[in-house]
Structures are given as structure tokens and as C-alpha cells.
Amino acid sequence: MKDLKCAMKVCVYNKGYCCCADEIKVGTDSKCHTYTIDQSKKDDVMFEIGMDQTKPDYSVNTKVDCIAPCIFQKHDKCHAIGITVLAAEKDAECATFILK
User: Fold this and answer.
1) Which domain range does residue 24 map to?
2) Is residue 12 part of a domain?
3) Contact between residue 16 and residue 54 where contact means Cβ atoms under 8 Å apart
4) Cα angle for residues 78, 30, 91 (degrees, 5° grid)
5) What pTM did the predictor assign?
6) Is 99 inside a domain boundary?
């Protein structure tokens, strides 16, 4: 999936609001279990400003494994055209999730 937008700016896989992981896993709770905090981004005060200037990388074709009870999930894979991951308290959650 090339259209994987992510608002989790401090994730190690986030580059310009795009997910650059080779694969992500979305659990039954619709949370992104691949979300990993990059301490260097979290501790860098100037990072927040620079993130908005980072060019998105849509060349990565991320595999999305999903076991959420979602209308886009078939055979443990996401079949949506694209997804958006947003902040949910302390976690990252798939905002494209629609309960079956």
C-alpha cells in the first residue's frame, strides 16, 4: 500500500507523514502494533518544525497485515486503497477502520 498516511510524527517509520515501514500490523483493536517511538525525534524540540517541511515518500509499498473486524480486512490483509493512522491516547490507531 503506497497511500499510508501517518500522523505519529515520532514513529521511527514516519517520514513526512508517510509510513516507510516494509510491513505494519493492525490488531483486533485497530491499533498499529508496528508503531515504535524514535527517542531522538521525541527529544528534539526542532523536530516538530522540521517534520512539516519533510517531503513525503510515496515510493514505499508497505504491506498491511490486519486482523481487525473491519470491512477492508480479508484473509488477514488490508484491502483498502489507502489508510490513515492517527494518535489514540498513547497508541497509533487506524482511522480508516470501519466495523464489519
Assistant:
1) 4-94
2) yes
3) yes
4) 125
5) 0.83
6) no
Query: From edge to edge, which strands make up the β-sheet containing 91-94?
Result: 14-15, 18-19, 4-6, 83-88, 91-94
- The answer to whether position 100 is within a domain reads no
Cell of 20: 516507510
Residue 99's nearest CA partner among 29, 34, 36 is: 29
User: What length is written for the chain?
Assistant: 100
- For the chain, the domain total comes to 1
pLDDT for residue 15 = 84
| Joined grid coordinates for residue 33 | 502494533
Q: What angle do CA 32, 36, 37 make, to 5 degrees?
A: 130
Domain assignment present for residue 44? The answer is yes
56: confidence class by pLDDT, cuts 50, 70, 90: low
